[in-house]
Amino acid sequence: MDSSIIFLGTGGDTYVVGKQAKASGGIIVNAEGMQFHIDPGPGALVKLKEYDINPRNTISLLISSNENHLCNDANCVIDAMTHNGLDKRGVLVVNESANGFITEHYKTCPEKSITVSPDKKVGINEVEIRTLPCFGNSNIGFKMFTSKFVFTYSSNTAYNEELIEHYKGSNILVLNVLNPGNNKTEGNLNIDDAIKIASKVKPQMLILTGFGVKFLKTDTLTETRRIQKETNVQTLAAKDGMVINPTSYNATMKQKMLRNF
Questions:
Q1: Average pLDDT value over all residues in the chain
Q2: Residue 233 CA to chain centroid, in angstroms?
């Protein structure tokens, strides 16, 4: 399996997801021959089918939040990846705040279920996953270390200077940016926040996702060009179904790997 990052959806608030103006199936990361699924929101199974991705290949389901648009299909995805527990396989990594969203039955279906808080480490074969703090809510982010690239996903978070150190060293940095410009919503980033982060973190590539209704009313290309111009960081606004090859952005790699859970 080649390395890839696939966006099953880019919707970021109740209005966008409720109308499915943008899909909300989460993100697939393929690395080290393994398939990871992050934040399977409403319609995750539909998008897996649409993009010909087999949920049975998922080795780990990562859930950052108890927000409906980020975890609604978690039980359904676990059901599909384990045949309702008949084939106990895979690892569920779930944020403390979202733990109650997973039914007791589906917690027993994977080979291992791990409830995590920020600043924890989980090793899944050759991939190390670090959980990152979020601000203004109870979410967590994820930072994945592979032999070929470092991938960081912010989840929903307000801007905080502490994020900079956690995000440094990322080849691919995915930020949930709800709002354009300096529009503020509690517990979420806007474009001005993304500029501050990118200018200090300097990832090889910055990808924006998790868009709210205000963002959809703006010129996305103008917003991404503004980030790129002010930070000199290659920037993309994700689209539903977009596929990225992360190994194209792995200029520097210094990491330690965990071999066990």
A1: 94
A2: 20
48, HSE (Cβ side, Cα atoms, 13 Å): 27
Per the structure, the count of domains in the chain is 1
CB of 153 within 8 A of CB of 27? yes
Torsions phi, psi of 37, nearest 5? -120, 120
Contact 58, 77 (CB under 8 A): yes
CATH code for position 194: 3.60.15.10
Each residue's pLDDT tens digit, 17-36: 999 999 999 999 999 999 99
The three-point CA angle 100-150-156 to 5° equals 40
Which residues on adjacent β-strands are paired with residue 27?
7, 38
- Specify if 236 maps to a domain: yes
Q: Is 259 contained in some domain?
A: no
pTM to 2 decimals?
0.94
Q: With pLDDT > 70 as the criterion, what percentage of the chain qualifies?
A: 95
Sheet holding 24-31, edge to edge: 112-116, 91-95, 58-63, 34-38, 24-31, 4-9, 243-244
Q: What's the mean pLDDT in 212-232? A: 95
Residue 217: give the domain boundaries: 4-243
